[in-house]
Structure formats: structure tokens, C-alpha cells
């Protein structure tokens, strides 16, 4: 049976039936009934901006699935590269499909020498690596002019491979520049996370040997961050992509959205907060301050627009943290984090607002224990989310979507005549 909603226009007495499709009603159908009356929804709190078959998220039940596969199973058994293939193609790859995909990505890890020598080397000595990444990704569009052929399947696939492959290279290059270390070329004999760690940390050794536990933990973090349906940066990707800009320009916009502390910058903010709290004894006073701040001061790494339950990714990360700390030693801030979680989860302020730890509450502790500087945290997020951004970009183009162009409710001045400067008051 088709579900529908009937509304009556009290001005005319006429009733209209609007079908409910996939849990939504078409705003275009409503607009026919209410011409000139717009739906007011800043922040898209109640608006579905797309139909998507990539990621399923039930924030109340704490469920996250990529293409139907539970995030817990993917984190347990898959790899980031396989998950990227899944997000982009809709199905898990066969052995030969995966081999081809791995080969394609691995053989595109190098960046043009001019990107590094002329472009990245031109930044100020203390440039934030995320700012460098945003610019470098945009700059790639000037190196691959075929990227404009967004409806040519071969060109599209090529840009997807290039972006997935080059993000870790750009990310590591930004870090090496910011600490004054020479650039490390990709080692294509290593797997995806190990190659990234080699580009980050290699000094003079002929081949960088990474601890498999650390490389696996990083891969799990990449899997957990690979997609999260219509989040802020993915929306930026879709909005810019809807103008038919090339994927590098759209991806740079997505990176820029991820840079903000309300989104990808949150794990950096968590570590700063935990360091400021300093020790377990100071936790109750800090919680009281957050509550007294009435929203002006936030418990970083807590709360989520969609999850009104424990973020399933936070649970997986908590487990991965133990494996990392076994190699690196325990992060001293972990005890502060655990105490903060314990107190917040039993406090009415947080429970009544359904504020639970999100993915970023523990990820920063792992990154810090692995030696990543705080500024690199959003960059790590960007490497992983590139797969999701591209999957959504591709899906949007295949849906023949309209250019994103919302309406507004105008609240400014009525029409008035221009006043020459000499006749304006002080
Ligand atoms: N600490 C204290 N109070 C909070 C927090 C927090 N972290 N988050 C929300 N609240 C309160 C807020 O003050 C408001 O209270 P009241 O109803 O009394 O005014 C209520 O909870 C609802 O908050 P909201 O801002 O309307 O919720 P939102 O859905 O717009 O915001 C959020 C979601 C993630 C921006 C927000 O929870 C937040 O700022 N959290 C801290 C930053 C953070 O951890 N961000 C990472 C998100 S997960 C990674 C990602 O997706 O990028």
C-alpha cells in the first residue's frame, strides 16, 4: 500500500494527497500547492537533500552501514581500499577486481613535481597542513585538464583513482613541509596505510618498516571515517559538484568544510580540551563549567546531529585504542577521557540532550599516541573521507541532479532610492 499525507488548504478548502516515498515527501509537490511559500530549514535539520544508496545511518539506534554492510564487520574484516571500492561501486570486489583496483590506486600515488616543489614549497613556514591540503587538492585540477570531462566514464574513473591515491601523498607532504623534513616519495611496495606512514615518518632508512598493529589501527580509522552520508563536507562536495565543477575543485570545497571545528576539526579540539583539563580530579569542575556555559562551552567529541545514542564508531575506536597503546604505551590523557565519559554519561544535562561520545572523542588519542601532531588530525580524516566524497559525487552526477540552489526568506529593507554620499548623514 502506498503511504501518503493529505493536507487541506484552509484558504480554498481544497485537499491534496502527497505520497510518502522512501520516508520522505517531495518538497516540489508541496510547492505546487503552496506557490511562493518556501520551507524554512537552516542547517537542513529536517530536509533530505538527496536520495542515496551509499550509507545507512540510524542515529537513534546507533546503526551505521556502508552499502548494507555493518560498520562493525567492515572494521573487523575489511581494509580501507576495499571499503573505498565498495562505497564507489556498490559491491565488494572479487579477487581480480580488487587486484586491479589496488594496482590502479598504487600506480597513481606520485604527485607532479611542480605540486610539491613550486606549489607546496611556496607556503609560509608555519602553514597549517589542512590549509595546505585544501589548496593542493584544488591545484590538482590545473594539472589534469581531462578532469572537466565529468560525464566521460573513463575520465571520471581516472580522477577517482588519482584522488584516492594522491591524498595520502599530499597529506604527508604537507606534514613534512611543516616540520622542515624532506619530502618522502611513495613506496608502492607497501600497502595503503603503511605507505602513508612511510611518507610521514621515514628518515634515512632504505625502507620504512611500520608496526603492523599501527598500520592496521590506522586502516580501521580510515574505514570508520570513509563515509557518513550527508554530512557537512559531503554536502559541500555535492553542492559544488552540482555546478559540474571538476572533482578536484569539488573535493577542495569538501576539505574546506571538513577543516571546521564543528566537523573534522573536532578530534583536535578534544585533545586540546583533555590537555587543558590535565588530570582526572579536574573533570567534575570542567563538566560543571560546560553545563554553566549553556551551549557556549562544549564538551568536544560529544554530541552529534544524527546520533542520539552512542556513536557505533566510537565503540570500535575505543577497542582499537587498546591495540595501539600496547605498542606506543598508554596515552596519559586516556584516563581523563574515560573519567569525562563516565561522569557525562551519568549527568542529566548530557543524558537529557542525548549527548554521547562521537567518533572524534577517542580517535585523537590514538593519533596522538601514534605521533601525529594535532594539526594533522583533520588531514587524516580527509584522506579517509575522500572515498565517501567521490562516491556521493558520482551518485549525484548519475542522478542527473539539479544545480543546488536553495531559496531564502528575505528579511531586509524594502525598495528605496540611492542616496548620494554627500547627502548621507554621519
Ligand atoms: N557539549 C555540551 N552541550 C552540547 C554539546 C556538547 N558537545 N553538543 C550539544 N550540546 C547542547 C547544546 O548546547 C544544546 O543545548 P540547549 O538545547 O540547552 O540549547 C543541545 O545540546 C543541542 O545542541 P545543538 O547545537 O542544537 O545540536 P546540533 O545537532 O546542531 O550539533 C554538534 C551537533 C556535533 C555540532 C554538537 O553536538 C557539537 O558542537 N559537538 C561538539 C563538537 C564535536 O564533537 N563535533 C564532532 C561531530 S562528529 C564528527 C563529524 O561528523 O564531523
What does this structure look like?
The protein is built from 18 helices and 5 strands. Helix 7 runs antiparallel to helix 18 and helix 12 packs across helix 17. The protein starts with a strand and ends in a 28-residue tail after the last helix. The protein is mainly alpha-helical. The protein is 51% helix and 5% strand. The chain folds into 3 domains: 4-58, no CATH class; 68-259 and 376-398, Citrate Synthase, domain 1; 266-369, Cytochrome p450-Terp, domain 2 (Orthogonal Bundle), CATH 1.10.230. Strand 3 and strand 4 (63-66) form a beta hairpin.
Summarize the structure.
By secondary structure, the chain is mainly alpha-helical.
Q: Characteristics of this structure?
A:
426 residues; mainly alpha; Citrate Synthase, domain 1; Cytochrome p450-Terp, domain 2; 3 domains; 3-stranded antiparallel β-sheet; two-stranded antiparallel ribbon; 5 strands; 51% helix; binds carboxymethyl coenzyme *A
Amino acid at each position: 500500500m502506498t503511504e501518503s499525507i493529505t493536507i487541506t488548504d484552509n484558504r480554498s478548502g481544497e485537499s491534496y494527497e502527497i505520497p510518502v516515498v522512501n520516508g520522505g515527501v517531495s518538497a516540489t509537490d508541496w510547492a505546487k500547492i503552496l506557490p511562493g511559500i518556501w520551507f524554512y530549514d537552516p542547517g537542513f535539520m529536517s530536509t533530505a537533500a538527496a536520495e542515496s544508496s551509499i550509507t545507512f545511518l540510524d542515529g537513534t539506534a546507533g546503526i551505521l552501514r556502508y552499502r548494507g554492510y555493518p560498520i562493525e564487520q567492515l572494521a573487523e574484516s575489511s581494509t580501507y581500499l576495499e571499503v573505498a571500492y565498495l562505497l564507489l561501486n556498490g559491491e565488494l570486489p572479487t579477487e581480480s577486481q580488487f587486484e586491479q583496483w589496488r594496482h590502479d590506486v598504487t600506480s597513481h600515488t606520485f604527485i607532479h613535481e611542480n605540486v610539491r616543489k613550486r606549489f607546496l614549497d611556496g607556503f609560509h613556514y608555519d602553514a597549517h597542513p589542512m590549509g595546505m591540503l585544501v589548496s593542493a587538492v584544488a591545484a590538482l585540477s590545473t594539472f589534469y585538464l581531462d578532469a572537466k570531462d565529468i560525464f566521460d566514464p573513463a575520465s571520471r574513473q581516472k580522477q577517482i583513482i588519482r584522488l584516492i591515491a594522491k591524498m595520502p601523498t599530499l597529506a604527508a607532504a604537507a606534514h613534512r613541509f611543516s616540520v622542515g623534513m624532506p619530502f618522502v616519495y611513495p613506496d608502492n611496495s607497501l600497502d595503503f596505510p603503511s605507505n602513508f606512514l612511510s611518507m610521514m615518518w621515514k628518515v634515512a632508512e632504505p625502507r620504512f618498516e611500520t608496526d603492523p598493529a599501527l598500520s592496521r589501527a590506522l586502516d580501521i580509522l580510515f574505514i570508520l571515517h570513509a563515509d557518513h552520508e550527508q554530512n557537512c563536507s559531503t554536502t559541500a562536495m555535492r553542492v559544488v559538484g552540482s555546478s559540474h565543477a571538476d572533482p578536484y575543485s569539488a573535493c577542495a570545497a569538501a576539505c574546506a568544510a571538513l577543516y571546521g571545528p564543528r566537523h573534522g576539526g573536532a578530534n583536535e579540539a578534544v585533545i586540546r580540551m583533555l590537555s587543558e583539563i590535565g588530570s582526572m580530579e579536574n573533570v567534575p569542575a570542567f563538566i560543571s563549567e560546560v553545563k554553566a556555559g549553556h551551549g557556549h562551552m562544549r564538551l568536544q567529541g560529544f554530541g552529534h546531529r544524527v546520533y542520539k545514542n552512542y556513536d557505533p564508531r566510537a565503540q570500535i575506536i575505543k577497542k582499537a585504542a587498546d591495540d595501539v597503546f600496547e605498542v606506543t604505551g598508554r596515552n596519559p590523557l586516556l584516563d581523563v577521557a574515560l573519567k569525562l565519559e563516565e561522569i557525562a554519561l551519568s549527568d542529566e544535562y548530557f543524558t537529557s540532550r542525548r549527548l554521547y561520545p562521537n567518533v572524534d572523542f577517542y580517535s585523537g588519542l590514538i593519533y596522538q599516541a601514534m605521533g601525529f601532531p594535532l594539526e594533522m588530525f583533520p588531514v587524516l580524516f580527509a584522506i579517509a573521507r575522500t572515498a565517501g566524497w567521490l562516491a556521493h559525487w558520482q551518485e549525484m552526477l548519475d542522478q542527473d541532479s539539479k544545480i543546488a540552489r536553495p531559496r531564502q526568506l528575505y528579511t531586509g529593507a524594502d525598495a528605496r532610492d540611492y542616496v548620494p554620499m554627500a547627502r548621507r548623514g554621519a
